[in-house]
Queue: 2 jobs
Job 1
Amino acid sequence: MPDQTTAYTPTDRSVPTRDRERASYERAFVHAILDEAYVCHLGFVRDGLPVVLPTLFARVGERLYVHGSTGSRPLRMAGQADPGLPVCLTVTHVDGLVLARSAFHHSINYRSVVVQGVAHKVTDEEERRTALDAIVEHVVPGRAADSRPANPKELAATAVLRLDLDEVSAKVRTGGPNDEPEDVGLPHWTGVVPVSKVYGSPVPADDLAAGIDVPDYIKAL
Amino acid sequence: MPDQTTAYTPTDRSVPTRDRERASYERAFVHAILDEAYVCHLGFVRDGLPVVLPTLFARVGERLYVHGSTGSRPLRMAGQADPGLPVCLTVTHVDGLVLARSAFHHSINYRSVVVQGVAHKVTDEEERRTALDAIVEHVVPGRAADSRPANPKELAATAVLRLDLDEVSAKVRTGGPNDEPEDVGLPHWTGVVPVSKVYGSPVPADDLAAGIDVPDYIKAL
């Protein structure tokens, strides 16, 4: 049994059927993968069928938040559902293309987190504000304080869902190809092509007033 | 009614509830978004609950293929399910961070495709080989011909699922922030920070023999 203060407890659902040696339940490791992303893929069931939508999210301690228009489907469904909407929230970073000598052993270096649970609509106004700030901060740290906060009309149009980090697992693949010993003499190049995310130069809006420079927290990206 | 030769027919499920002006059903546009990605997020329902897993995929004409170990959960489930496994396959590219003057109008420039349908296990050996080659080619064009093809044992250990492109929609956001007219005078920097994917220098495997250079199709990444 892992230490619950530093790790999530594996469950039947959160233990992968394949490549279990790639799984991790360490909170710090899971948090780092989540915090490096701002888009997740949120899955839910509608009329018995799966739906997967990309959406922004943020982590605050052991809670994840997603937001959206009060008219959007999962947010409406979570508001109606009692006691909440079962979801699966997945985050994936691709770190490299793994080119083995055999087609079979081609792979991807990646880090992913899968969170399963029940999402609840947040009704407490302070928690809603905290969540909305966190989502802006998650995308660009420093931005929440450098933008106009939501006004009552905007807050009324925005729904926030909370998903507790409880049934959680990370999965990671690192390193080079794992070719079969009998393939080592084959003449194909083999190795890893790193993949990463980069930010380009900020493009000012057409109506940006003269004299407003790119802030340091954006340059820091 | 859009021309079915150039566009997918919108359905109740494939028309988004929000931001309909961002939706597209054009086949060429959908194909381009799919082909630029190699990882998708595959959603399915297990015991009534949603599961979303990242996985490699490829497109061959109007069909998508995913593969995995015969022991992996969705592939086993699709093999058992009759007439197949309902899935939602979603692909997302993040193109930019949209920093508005108001927290509310912060957004992401993105291109996404959502495919809904029923995945079937592929049993025809020729189609299986075509699909597996396509998945390798999808990650690195040119690689399928420059690696050892799967042998019978490897083929027997690999399951392939097919999902027809039928109920499909793309969604895209481009351009700058959409601030409220009354916010234009606020002192916050506003614009877009472009985001893109880059490849690093190929890292050869530890056991790569001397004299095997990085092939041109990898340099072309």
Job 2
Amino acid sequence: MPFPTVEITLPAWMDDALTDRNHPYPTVADRMALVIELARRNVESETGGPFGAGIFELQSGRLVAPGVNMVIPGNCSVAHAEITAIMVAQKIMGTFDLGEEGLPPMELVSSTEPCAMCLGAVVWSGVRRLVCGGRDEDARGIGFDEGPKPSNWTVALEKRGIAVLRDVARRDAVAVLKHYVDRGGWVYNARQSAAP
Amino acid sequence: MPFPTVEITLPAWMDDALTDRNHPYPTVADRMALVIELARRNVESETGGPFGAGIFELQSGRLVAPGVNMVIPGNCSVAHAEITAIMVAQKIMGTFDLGEEGLPPMELVSSTEPCAMCLGAVVWSGVRRLVCGGRDEDARGIGFDEGPKPSNWTVALEKRGIAVLRDVARRDAVAVLKHYVDRGGWVYNARQSAAP
């Protein structure tokens, strides 16, 4: 029997939620509002964890690809919101490097600061800016481990030509995290967390 | 038009290379020899970068899933060897958590120490041990950036219940890295590296 193909498919509600693919997201606040809404809808639809993300063209604000956490329904610990947005965007653009010459500069907007895995993925993706809503400590606050991240992670990104913008609509992002827990959402993999 | 499904399919040669799916890998040296051979074959076949990995049952040494770097041909910056092995293993086992109760303990064997992204992915995967061949500095030595990893990353894994074994057949792993460069293999994304 051959090894299986792994398929990453965004939740069915995503195409309904984004019917107008030319909808403009001119400001950072607009972009963050969208990814927080995707996180909220992901929780409501029980299609994954309380995290949303999107790859946008930095100047125009055009949405290239959305992403949501699909770890539990997808049977895939890699399927964080940032990772799915990056993978779908690269599939659409036909390149492993969103910073490729000839493409408009792109950014990743994430409802919560990236975990250790997604932090690395940001570097390899080719995006030129990372915009974050909730902070690491907000994710940890509801029991998610953010993993082995260097404390100076924003500097590490900036050194690699990736600007970082934090605390955009942080309160709204945190509200979705809390909503997930209030609904009894499963904080998976928490058993492996280090003692604080 | 709906957002596309992202598909991760191991190279066609993989099923030929592993026809005997019950082949035993009793020792750590056996397991490392296999993943280094997969890395070498990946280079020879021009199906990706010089990195191989595998998820094994820790006690029996049964291979659950192999992985190789497929970044360039797959148009996917996330498709590192460790990530593909984890995703395929979780697909086969039908769970996002390879450390789930009822499953035998598993380990990830990687031809080179994980980059920042894969380090985080190891934590979320549920494996109980990480076995490495080449070191970070060996990957950097041929121009690959390992990304923003904390300097005490082995401690960070051990704190989360994941043992780390390093320098297994390091020289053989490094030989594949050198072979890739000698053949003119593309050291992608190097432009974003920080100055040393």
